[in-house]
Write a structure and sequence with these properties.
The chain is an alpha+beta fold and 162 residues long. It folds into 2 domains: 100 residues, no CATH class; 37 residues, no CATH class. The two termini are 33 Å apart. The mean pLDDT is 85.
């Protein structure tokens, strides 16, 4: 049997490590971008009233973080869509369960179309007061998205061509 000599360059391990790190970063970014699409879909599916601006869904973006990628920068969400937590969990970050009284009007311009029963949205322009009595129902769009993560990871892994 013939002897075969294989020479491995001294920087082989370093080169392979760099390749693997770059490939994993590409995969994790792809997973995050697909996850962003799914969370936007889950939020949109749960809209109960017409006239949505899409602000909540559009506030969830893919972001580069230390050591990888994520979806939804909490500081950005707190500024851009401060109601994100309340809508998702059914409770404010402060622990409050029922929204505070506020001044405004329903989209119809009428002070009381049976508290949004006609699909109207409460706006901050107007001189009427609303004093909510019931908690906001949790939409659980984050959990619904997490339920899809295995499918997202599998779909990304299947696309890898080496």
């Amino acid at each position: 049997m013939a002897k075969i000599n294989v020479k491995i360059k001294s920087n082989f391990a370093k080169t392979q490590t760099a390749f693997i790190l770059r490939l994993s970063d590409i995969q994790i970014e792809a997973i995050a971008r697909k996850t962003e699409l799914v969370i936007k879909e889950k939020i949109t599916e749960r809209i109960e009233r017409d006239g949505s601006t899409g602000n909540l869904a559009n506030s969830f973006t893919t972001v580069k973080i230390t050591g990888g990628w994520g979806v939804g920068d909490i500081d950005f969400l707190n500024k851009q869509a401060p109601y994100w937590y309340w809508q998702n969990f059914g409770i404010a970050q402060s622990g409050r369960k029922i929204p505070p009284e506020s001044k405004g009007a329903f989209g119809s311009g009428k002070p009381r179309p049976t508290a949004g029963a006609g699909g109207s949205r409460w706006g901050t322009t107007g001189n009427f007061f609303i004093n909510p009595k019931k908690p906001i129902e949790a939409k659980n769009y984050i959990q619904a998205t997490l339920n899809e993560v295995n499918k997202i990871v599998s779909s990304v892994v299947r696309t890898i061509k080496l």
